[in-house]
Amino acid sequence: MSDYSDKYETVIGLEVHAQLATASKLFCGDATSFGAAPNTQVSPITLGHPGTLPKTNRLAVEYAIRMGIACNCTITQNNYFARKNYFYPDLPKGYQTSQHTTPVCDGGRVLIKSGNDSRFIRLNRIHLEEDAGKSIHDMDEVYTCIDYNRAGTPLIEIVTEPDLHTADEAYQYVTEIRRLVRWLGICDGNMEEGSLRCDANVSIRLKGEQKLGTKVEVKNLNSIRNVKKAIEFEVVRMIELVESGGTVKQETRSFDAATDTTFAIREKEEANDYRYFPEPDLAPFMLSDAFVEGIKKSLPPLPEQLLQQYQQQYGLSEYDAAQLCMDKETADYYNAVTAISNNYKAAANWITGPIRQYINENKLDFGNFPLTPQQLAGLLQLVDEGSVGFSAAATKILPELIKHRDADALQVATAQNLLQVSDSGELELWVNQALSNMPDKVTEYKKGKKGLIGLFVGEVKKLSKGKADPKLVTGLLQEKLK
Amino acid sequence: MFSFTGIKDYHNALLNGQTTCVEAVHYYLNGIAAQQHLNAFIEVYKEEALQRAAMLDAALPGQQSLQPLYGVVIGIKDVISYQDHGLTAASGILRNFVSLYNATAVQRLLDAGAIIIGRQNCDEFAMGSANENSAYGIVRNAADPERVPGGSSGGSAVAVQGNMCMLSLGSDTGGSVRQPADFCGIIGLKPSYGRVSRYGLIAYASSFDQIGIFGLHLNDVALALEVIAGEDAFDSTVSTAPVPAYSEQLQTQPEKPYRIAYFKQALEHPGLDPAIKEQTEAFIETLTAAGHLVQAVDFDLLDYVVPAYYVLTTAEASSNLSRYDGVKYGYRSPVATDDLTDFYKQNRSEGFGAEVKRRIMLGTFVLSSGYYDAYFTKAQQVRRLLTQKTTAIFGEFDAIISPTVPAPAFKIGEKSDPIEIFLADIYTVFANLTGIPGISLPLFTHPSGMPFGIQVMTSQMNEVTLLSLSKTFMQIAAKD
Fold it and tell me: Is the pLDDT reported for residue A1 higher than 50?
């Protein structure tokens, strides 16, 4: 492959479908929960019974707009739905109601990591549509079984321009989309359950060529890993095909995760004529500036903003800032702590260090983490003042605080006798005792073996049972050993 | 002996103990039994109607005023959902289908005290003008059983015409209430698009369909409209405008004479029956003599209305009828197949009748890529032009009048050319294309002995004027 990477350029466009986390469906009141017994979330409206009519779920529209605002899209004022007509058993009405002509969000961009840099991927659109039911082919020997629970679930389809150039960029892009939809609370981002699905349009062209090559659409990529693997496979397949004198056919392919390969499912010639026309059962809807502005105001600070704020205002490293912005719960927690404590760096270290470790070990997340920001702020303050050492704080006080929501750090430190002594009279006694315990080492130190200072500090720590402030002890020792 | 002279009289008779709901239901059941050859009903809810009537009678003592449709015996076209009752659209594809819910209009009838006596025969999926396209057989005109009753709501019209119920609910997509009302000599009202919820009405063409009302008395029609009209959480295309008390406003007559327009091209149309033309012109003179301003307006778009109508309605129908595929409910062919496309083809070929197939194919064609702009887009442009033109006319006039149909009821089996049948919709489709209300009033008798009517249309959501004007017309023609 590396032989060809200078010769060909890969061009990728992605279509990500995100199921919106509304309690009810896009056009009726049926529930949308995942995993319910088959065909239990199906009213006559979902099933397309004669005479039923759709009614748009306002929250779904609002969720789509949230995503649009977060991606810097232009929000369309006059919207209507269209019907995409085709026959399939899991499509109850024989058409899908979708925003063909007027996507609610136009244009926009998403910031992704690409190698060591960040760059914007341009969006073509984000539009609303309804999901289909699920065909289950392996349940019965003869028949296909259909579960219509999913039919009518609201989706947004997020469509990029052909702006991505490597499988890794595609990986980063989908990762970013998943973080964003979760951040905004509009989709659980769970690819295994199909809440987030991706189709990739892949083509290759000679470097420097302006015209796009013939594209292949790879469908139903149900993990971020599979997005990457499928594109990697496709690129190799296409290059080998072209290099061996063949031409790429426009077709739809599917990914086989067992072998990390793709296979053709239909050629373009068989493409459907979907006969789109405006959905006459739904009145067009207007989005006022005030409505959109209200949604904008209700949005939480976005990761892009927080990344900047953490680095520029709080002086965090890019790495630490990125760790805190991994998901909204972590960022929320950090923001709650820094709202009452200005130990910005220490708070970041604690959250990305011992607390993240505790959370991982106990399979928690920041959303249900019991330690209150107030408790953590108290603990940070004790460490900052030198009243307790970091390790005592992390191993002894933190677990207690997590167990008892109403306990505060000072109480625990006092109860467990962990407060460090900074009284110079008391410290001097321990220092003198330590030095007199090790006369040989003192001689060696004085001859120049300065590294022995750690040994003396350790001895003081032992004598004080850990209560002596190591910083003060070190200073005092250096004084005495001059 | 029971006789029906309007809901108001009926209610008085109930309150005075002169009649009972059970007696009324028996009267209409007898009417149905005696005229089975007309084939107006697909199913009669005999026991149920009698039970509900008995219940209403039992609840009567002590009541000072009655719910608006208390004990009113109503039939519904078999395209309107009535919970736990059959619903077929007169199609083989829904032969054993039972509705799981009530249409909003039906729910409101029931809440207002009505008794639903049965579901009525019609053209399959409301497609037709003669009620000759039903999987349940043709319907005959009570005035002459050798003639068609019109369509598609033929059964509903004949049921009122033949004293089988007091009122019927039909549906009107291009004249399917007004045209059979004309052929049967009764009143047929198509309200404005969006005046009555379509929830529970089987869709033919969603942006045209509207539930309509058949009756013998204008006051009854106004009252029924009052009951079924208005906002509905299940239909986002229904108007949220408040519903006036139509039946009361009907009584107040205008202080000023009406300004009435008619289309010059409509009365000069070569397809118009001479006797209908003559009597319509005579009526215009009568109106003028009565002090109203009646004026011809130029309407050069007349020849485009039928083509635009059939392009747009068949397009919508081709999509609306996609759900009848034999997968979830309805007819499934007994012929086994492993191929999904064959499965659809078999179910739909065997389940649908010829006219429905014709319209599905037409609609699929006009929406196909390559033809879309030439047909669908063009027809949408015509529709927009018509709406503009209509708005302009109603800036100057209170109403537009025309014959309802260019010719009176024809003989069963007499017409088979679909184009000829389509063209007879020339006067009625205009109201559906523009969303305005229209009514057919039974004012005339044709030399053939058949009744025919006049159509009145007003601006959108202006049923108050439509009904008051109708009242005036009926009085002038001494029919009220």
Answer: no
A25 touches chain B (CB under 8 A): no
The answer to whether the CB of A122 falls within 8 A of the CB of A28 is: no
Does B361 touch chain A if contact means CB atoms closer than 8 Å? no
Q: What is the DSSP string of B160-183?
A: HHTTS-SEEEEE-SSSTTHHHHHH
Neighbours of A248 (CB within 10 A): 18
pLDDT tens-digit readout, A317-364: 999 999 999 999 999 999 999 999 999 999 999 999 999 998 999 888
**Record: contact B198-A53, CB cut-off 8 A:** yes
Q: Please provide the DSSP assignment of B260-304 as one string.
A: EEEEHHHHT-TTS-HHHHHHHHHHHHHHHHTT-EEEEE--TTHHH
In angstroms, the CA B365 to CA B367 distance is 5
CA distance linking residue A200 with residue A218, whole number of Å: 5
Q: CA-CA distances (angstroms) from residue A420 to A67, A409, A471, A476, B315? A: 50, 13, 11, 15, 83
Separation CA A25–CA A133 (nearest Å)? 12
CA distance A87 to A95: 7
Number of A/B CB contacts below 8 angstroms equals 96
Mutation target for B interface from A143, A277, A279: give the one with most B CBs within 10 A: A277
- Concerning whether B65 is annotated as a catalytic residue, the answer is no
Chain B residues close to A87, C-beta within 8 Å: 322, 325, 344
DSSP 3-state of B124:
helix
Residue type, A339: A
- pLDDT at residue B273 above 70? yes
Q: B415 is written with which tokens?
A: 């017409």
Domain annotation for chain A: domains and CATH numbers? 8-290 (no CATH), 300-415 (no CATH), 424-480 (1.10.10.410)
Question: B319 and A85: CB-CB below 8 Å?
Answer: yes
DSSP class of A421? B
Asked if B288 and B294 count as a contact pair (C-beta separation under 8 A), the reply is yes
Which sign, positive or negative, has the C-alpha torsion A100, A104, A106, A109?
negative
A283 touches chain B (CB under 8 A): yes
- Sequence-distant (6+) residues with CB within 8 A of A195 are A18, A19, A21, A34, A187, A188, A189
Q: Which residue has the tokens 């209507």?
A: A80
Q: What angle do CA A287, A291, A293 make, to 5 degrees?
A: 120
Structure tokens given for A217: 């659409």
CA distance B115 to B24: 10
CA A133 to chain centre: 27
Q: Which pTM does this prediction carry?
A: 0.91
pLDDT on residue A448: 85
Task: Tokens for B172, please give them.
Answer: 């009107």
For residue B168, indicate whether it is catalytic.
no
* Residue A157 φ/ψ, nearest 5 degrees: -110, 120
Give the whole-angstrom CA distance, residue A35 versus residue A21: 14
Q: Which of B17, B21, B138 is nearest to B74 (CA)?
A: B21
Cβ(A19)–Cβ(A153) under 8 Å? yes
Q: Residues A202, A207, A212, A213: what is their CA dihedral angle, to the nearest 10 degrees?
A: -60
Structural domains present in chain B: 7-252 (3.90.1300.10)
Residues 84-123 of chain A whose Cβ lies under 8 A from any Cβ of chain B: 85, 87, 89, 92-95
Closest CA–CA distance from residue A193 to any residue of chain B (Å)? 25
Q: CA B22, CA A316: separation in Å to the nearest integer? A: 85
Query: Bigger pLDDT: B454 or A265?
Result: B454
CA A66 to centroid of chain Cα atoms: 16
Instruction: Determine the 3-state secondary structure of A200 from DSSP.
Output: strand
For A272, the 3-state DSSP assignment is coil
